[in-house]
Specification:
Layout (H helix, E strand, L loop, with lengths): L2 E6 L3 H15 L1 H4 L4 E7 L6 H5 L5 E3 L12 E4 L4 H13 L7 E2 L4 E2 L5 E2 L4 E2 L4 E2 L4 E2 L4 E2 L4 E2 L4 E2 L4 E2 L4 E2 L4 E2 L4 E2 L4 E2 L4 E2 L4 E2 L4 E2 L8 E3 L4 E2 L1
Parallel strand pairs: 1-2, 1-4, 2-3, 5-8, 6-9, 7-10, 8-11, 9-12, 10-13, 11-14, 12-15, 13-16, 14-17, 15-18, 16-19, 17-20, 18-21, 20-22
Antiparallel strand pairs: 22-23
Length: 218
């Protein structure tokens, strides 16, 4: 049976999430994953409707339209900001909505000890090795890598080409900018942002922005 799905957020990453949906459907005969029935996007902003129309998927309206859809309709949040994802997920949980988790067929997930929380999106060419715990509504963007025994909290955002080494802990709502690196056994505190290209070589506290090599709070 097909899984009916709505993507919350129709901006750039929302469209990339739709790419993941299309890849899952294109490879369903090989992977055995059920087909996803893409119902449309919801968005409170002003997304580029021409870009949405090119995908043959409707823009259904504002996010609150999700509340009026049948109970079997699942959702996934295609918004990069972790704190915004948290607010939407808490609202959707109040509606008793089910969050879908999406894994692109080209992503490589180890066979042992991998857990992926509800609502998470794992994009093309991501590699997750072994004994990794991924929380709820986590985004692992293009070609990110996550090493052994890493723990990613809820609403973590990992941008393209990030390297997370073994036994790293990323607390809730951490954001790792494009091309950043976290060396082994480091901890990054909740809601901290690591800038693009930065190298985390020591633990970082909560609620800071860290940039540079080595990464330092600013």
């Amino acid at each position: 049976m097909d899984t009916p799905l709505v993507i919350v957020g129709a901006g750039g990453f929302g469209r990339e999430v739709h790419d993941v949906v299309e890849a899952i459907n294109a490879n369903s005969a090989t992977t055995g994953q059920p087909l996803i029935e893409m119902l449309g996007f919801v968005d409170d902003g002003e997304p580029d409707e021409e870009l949405i129309d090119d995908r043959g998927v409707p823009l259904l309206g504002s996010v609150d339209k999700l509340a009026a859809l049948p109970s079997e309709v699942q959702y996934v949040i295609g918004i990069g900001n972790g704190s915004v994802r948290r607010r939407i997920a808490e609202w959707a949980n109040g509606l008793e909505r089910t969050a879908a988790s999406l894994v692109h067929p080209t992503a490589i997930l180890g066979r042992h000890g991998i857990s992926v929380g509800v609502g998470s999106v794992i994009c093309a060419n991501v590699a997750v090795t072994t004994n990794v715990r991924i929380g709820q509504h986590v985004h692992l963007n293009l070609a990110a890598t996550v090493g052994h025994d890493a723990v990613l909290g809820d609403f973590v955002t990992v941008y393209p080409n990030v390297s997370v080494s073994g036994a790293v802990v990323l607390e809730d709502e951490v954001t790792l900018g494009t091309g950043s690196v976290v060396i082994e056994q480091r901890r990054v505190g909740a809601r901290t942002t690591v800038g693009a290209g930065a190298a985390v070589v020591r633990d970082l506290p909560t609620d800071v922005t860290a940039v540079g090599v080595p990464a330092r709070p600013i």
